[in-house]
Amino acid sequence: MNIAEYSVTKKVTTWLLIILFLAGGFTALQEISRLEDPEFTIKEAKTYTAYPGATPLEVEVEREVTYHIENAVQQLQQLKRVESISQDGFSEVTVVIKDKYKKADFPITPSCDPAQGLATELFERLRPQIEAVKLPPGYFLEWGGEYEDSRDTNAAIGSTLPAGFLAMIIVVILLFGKVRQPLIIWLTVPLAIIGITAGLLTMNVAFGFMGLLGALSLVGLLIKNAIILIEEIDMNIAAGKESYNAILDSAVSRMRPVMMAASTTILGMAPLLSDVFFLDMAVVIMFGLGFASVLTLIVVPVLYAIFFNIKPQT
Questions:
Q1: What's the pLDDT at 39?
Q2: According to the model, what pLDDT value does residue 34 have?
Q3: How many CB atoms lie within 10 A of CB 122?
Q4: Phi then psi dihedrals of residue 47, to 5 deg
Q5: Which CATH fold would you assign to the domain 162-307?
Q6: What is the pLDDT of residues 154-207, one digit of tens each?
Q7: Chain centroid to CA 90
Q8: In angstroms, rounded to a whole number, what is the distance separating the alpha carbons of residues 5 and 144?
Q9: Measuring CA to CA, which residue among 151, 134, 60, 48 is closest to residue 94?
Q10: Which distant-in-sequence residues (6+ apart) come within 8 Å of 216 by Cβ?
Q11: Which stretches of the chain are assigned E, i.e. beta strand?
Q12: The pTM is what?
């Protein structure tokens, strides 16, 4: 018995579990500790120095007090700017620290923008030449900008992605209560790569971060299509229909719902083709979903017959 069937037949138990989960979540929310005095970093500091009797007043204060404080502050690695005021017998120096900084000492930051084409293409051409430059002792080279943002973002996604996929795998296994059906479902997910590759090459679009998000969203859409088809096959077999005919009839009966759902999603993404920011995501979803939906109707029945050793009756 799978989870869906158990939930329908045991309504009282299902509602009891929902109420218990809600009560437990509300109780846990009340017990979560709250930080009354959160940590914060002071980004600005002021230094006030009294120098009574300095003559001539402003010049002597500037030369003997303000100048030395500014010179010492300039050694700070995370310095953003320094402001100072010298008055009669009084000096004020304001130090502003960068919002974000690294451990590099006095970094030199060159930058350039391509006149045409993609920044990634320019980066691939320039990177070997720049990294071949010999640096003096004490200096090191670090890439920033779009490359750094992409690297940090991909690392953040990569650290949480395994847990997300594991959760989806567990949910699919619990849904069917078996192993072979979820295995068939997950074997159809890589089919999207065919459509994604064809779409990116046809539209001459680079696979960027938004394209990665589109590819991840495709996983859920393809799993849904495969679940619809496999669930129909299982229901027909359970109803007493011959297994081979059940596979063929299920593929035919589920073709319209699967293709209609894919078509509406593809048409909904079409307006994003004119948006430069969402272009790669739209291409990935439209072509990946279109190709994979068609292939799912072919591959899933074949895999089901192979995994369950179903052959046509002679």
A1: 56
A2: 57
A3: 15
A4: -115, 120
A5: Multidrug efflux transporter AcrB transmembrane fold (1.20.1640)
A6: 777 777 778 888 888 888 888 888 888 999 999 888 888 888 998 888 888 888
A7: 53
A8: 53
A9: 48
A10: 161
A11: 44-50, 79-87, 90-97
A12: 0.56
What is the C-alpha to C-alpha distance for residues 285 and 213, in angstroms, rounded to an integer? 9
AA identity, residue 35: L
Place of tokens 């919002």: 99
Token pair 């009084």 is found at 90
The DSSP string of 161-200 is HHHHHHHHHHHHHHHHTSSHHHHHHHHTGGGHHHHHHHHH
Buried b (16+ CB within 10 A) or exposed e, 28-62: eeeeeeeeeeeeeeeeeeebebebeebeebbebbb
Q: Which part of the chain is CATH 1.20.1640.10?
A: 162-307
Residue 228's alpha-carbon distances to 185, 235, 303, in angstroms, are: 10, 11, 15
Q: Rg of the chain over CA atoms, in angstroms?
A: 32
- Predicted confidence band at 105 (pLDDT cuts at 50, 70, 90)? very low
Measured CA to CA, the distance from residue 212 to residue 260 in angstroms comes to 25
Which range scores top for mean pLDDT: 14-28, 100-114, 123-137, 201-215?
A: 201-215
Phi, psi of 105 (to 5 degrees): -90, 115
- Number of neighbouring beta carbons within 10 Å of residue 90: 18
